[in-house]
Design brief:
- The chain is mostly helical.
- It is 72% helix and 1% strand.
- A two-stranded antiparallel sheet has the order 1-2.
- Strand 1 and strand 2 form a beta hairpin.
- It is elongated, with a radius of gyration of 30 Å.
Length: 310
């Protein structure tokens, strides 16, 4: 029988082993670069790093849990950062520039990139006079690159499934709302269910349209984003329900039919295609943003004036 859990583990194991191999290749390639006679390679550190990577690879082949594989991949990345100490002095600045350009290409905000460039200019430009400090700075850049790479992976792992869930919900809820309005003639509370479903669909569209960019971590919001999504949908649903109540109360008509007339037609089983579309579309529009109700209220009742002092 097919074991989905074991298949997922083995797939993750292959990815982890590939990452470990990539770190080892990066270290070995750095060692093979031409260097001057005075630029002595630290053979003892190289032997230690390669031995440690071999141990990590062996543990990854025997790991029984995905979390263990993730931890081992992180340790391998730390070992790969030691490649900075094998970089020839004449290549330090160029290598640092490549690392920063790679980070910037991921869409990272300008402020962190600017700080990294300041580190590059301050420590790597004088690599010949102080190679130890320059290589330490390059290692810091490599650590920063790995941190941003891990965050980008976390971002995709969070946002992609959430986007698909919201998309699926947006497709399904309008049909549920239409069915609720259709059968409201048999059970009138289904009108409320239909309004809630339509409002929730509009709120989901609003969330998808305003999903945060990659720099959301700078505000510490990625971990709490799913909770914020639920709160935004909840606010949108309530705003849609309140707005629908206002529309049903106000004598605003479209083609000689008010929103109250459309709801009444659904409740009495006389709703036609256009009427059903109206009662689904308006709550979706109201639920599209929690700010819609405020804008609608200002248009109908006007903007309140501030009281004068004195």
């Amino acid at each position: 029988m097919f074991d989905r859990g074991n298949a997922k583990l083995e797939k993750h194991r292959i990815e982890t082993l590939s990452a470990i191999t990539g770190e080892r290749v990066y270290v070995e390639a750095m060692v093979q670069r031409p260097r001057s006679a005075t630029d002595v390679l630290d053979e003892a550190l190289l032997d230690t790093v390669l031995k440690r990577l071999a141990e990590i690879e062996a543990k990854a082949r025997a790991a029984a849990h995905i979390d263990d594989l993730d931890d081992l991949e992180g340790v391998a990345e730390e070992q790969g950062e030691f490649a900075a100490y094998f970089c020839p002095v004449m290549d330090l600045r160029t290598e640092g520039q490549i690392v920063i350009d790679e980070i910037e290409g991921w869409g990272i905000p300008a402020a962190p990139v600017k700080s990294l460039r300041e580190l590059l200019d301050g420590a790597l430009k004088d690599g010949h006079s102080d190679p130890v400090a320059a290589r330490s700075a390059l290692r810091s850049l490599l650590r920063e690159r790995n941190a941003w790479a891990d965050y980008a992976d976390d971002y995709e792992d969070t946002m992609r499934p959430l986007a698909w869930k919201l998309f699926s919900t947006t497709v399904v809820l309008p049909f549920v709302a239409a069915l609720s309005f259709h059968f409201a003639v048999r059970f009138s509370p289904l009108l409320i269910v239909g309004l809630l479903c339509a409002g929730a669909a509009g709120s989901c569209v609003s969330v998808v349209a305003k999903m945060p960019a990659l720099d959301v971590s700078l505000k510490g919001e990625l971990d709490a984003y799913q909770r914020r999504v639920l709160s935004r949908i909840g606010v949108g649903v309530i705003a849609s329900l309140i707005g629908s109540g206002l529309l049903a109360w106000l004598p605003v008509s479209v083609q000689n039919q008010t929103f109250a007339d459309a709801l009444t037609a659904c409740a009495t089983g006389k709703a036609m295609g256009t009427t059903m579309l109206t009662v689904v579309a308006f709550p979706m529009i109201l639920g599209f943003s929690e700010r819609t109700l405020t804008s609608f209220e200002q248009r109908v009742f006007g903007t309140p004036t501030k009281s004068r002092k004195g």
